[in-house]
Amino acid sequence: MSSIDAAILAAEREVEAASRSRSICAAPLVRDAAPIDSLLPPGHEDSAGDLLAPPPAASALDDAGIELRQHALTAYAGKPAHHEPAPIPPFLVGSWKMFTATKINLMLVFLPLGIAAELLEWSDGAIFGLNCLAILPLAKLLGDATEQVATHTNDTIGGLLNATFGNATELIVSVFALVKGLLDVVQVSLLGSIISNTLLVLGMACIAGGITKPVQKFNSTAASANTTLLLMSILGMSIPACLAGFGEMKVNGKEDLLISRFTAIVLLFLYCLYIYFQLVTHRKYFEAEPEVPGGARTPVLARGAQQPALQLQSHVTRAGSSSFIMHKTDEEEEILFTLSGALFWLGSITVVIAFLSEFLTGAIEGATKDYSINKSFVGFVILPIVGNAAEHATAITMAYKSKMDLALGVALGSATQISLFVVPFMVLTGWAIGQPLDLFFGAYETAITFVATVVVGFAVADGETNWLEGASLLSAYIIIGASFLFYEHKSE
């Protein structure tokens, strides 16, 4: 037995309530934690800078657990512990696992029905309804395929992939609606997506989190950055409405389109800065702060940091990974495919969603007559829920598991992406294909979007939330959504 092994075993005997049947990776309580200096080999400097004395002679102890204790020493030194990667299953096995991972994928039975409804020329109401139901599980699978591609890249590229394909379903639906000239539907659906993420999803996430804890804490810095960017984007959207309201500009005129397209370019540039800010310069602000038992929140131990005791650290996912992780408590993303297999499913699911979006948008006009609802309600309520249902479920699930940082990342991050990327992208796409899509969303729509963002900003400013705040946000969404049953959006 080496001197390092003897030192580690000798120190472990002094830990109160330490169980040799339990791995150190099982995260002992902070009150049971050993001083970090006691886990270091002789000759190593302790936190005061003094050399440690040689350990007493080790008794004939069992060698079990040495490797796991060395894992703690490796983590303290700033070197990630070595883990053998799990073998990648065959393509068919990985596909089966992905398609049977969640119960929402059972809704894939609506996929052939949606295609049949279009080919057999069923009513527009049936085509619209069946294709909406078919897109729901495909949106989830598109996200899963994106994650699988991201597992074969580094953290920065993976973050860019998730940012790019985070709202791919909604983007595809909007593009087909734009091609068909449904400008009102495109505008209302984009605003509906922003409000559904900020009020509906965040509200339900706060309620779900309140079921498990009276008060849920989260990283207020990241939340404030998202709400600030949301307000900035809504400022850009409000300029055409203000100018038109004061009679200084004609809606859909040359000046309106010019200012809208210029603003879209500025917002896209701001989105690029936001991605660089999130993934490079200020990445730590978007990492989930780990919790220790009892509710205390501690930063991840970095190289060279002096800390008196070994504390519980939680695993940080791809949204904010760290090389200095003490203990891993969450499951890593399972790799189901090779890079080529993941790209195959990413491309295939995108193509299928594109076809269904073609069917869905073509039936909107007839569906509003069949269901006796106006296009504004379809665009503001139905289409955003269809495009983001998988993300909505993820945010609520994460909040219920007390992972509010991830829940807010999904809700506010998605709303920010729509306002800074999807909206200006659609304006520039309309410019390219000859569709006069502008940023004049109407005075009413712009006003409620601005007020909703301000309300959310106040809700997340203090870094904690509860179920009552969630109920307030959800109530606000229900009131706004109901108003669109009686309001018809007009682009002029």
Provide a quick synopsis of the model.
With 492 residues, the chain is an all-alpha fold. It folds into 2 domains: 3-71, no CATH class; 91-304 and 315-483, A middle domain of Talin 1, CATH 1.20.1420.30. The protein has helices spanning 3-12, 66-76, 91-99, 110-119, 124-150, 155-165, 168-179, 183-212, 220-245, 254-281, 339-362, 364-370, 375-400, 404-433, 443-460, 467-483, and strands at residues 216-217, 464-465.
| Annotated CATH homologous superfamily of the largest domain | NCX, central ion-binding region
Along the chain, the helix and strand elements come as HHHHHHHHEHHHHHHHEH
Strand order of the largest sheet: 1-2
Helix content: 55-70%
Mean pLDDT value: 76
Q: Find the CATH topology of the largest domain.
A: A middle domain of Talin 1
Number of helices: 16
Secondary structure topology:
Layout lengths: L2 H10 L53 H11 L14 H9 L10 H10 L4 H27 L4 H11 L2 H12 L3 H30 L3 E2 L2 H26 L8 H28 L57 H24 L1 H7 L4 H26 L3 H30 L9 H18 L3 E2 L1 H17 L9
Antiparallel strand pairs: 1-2
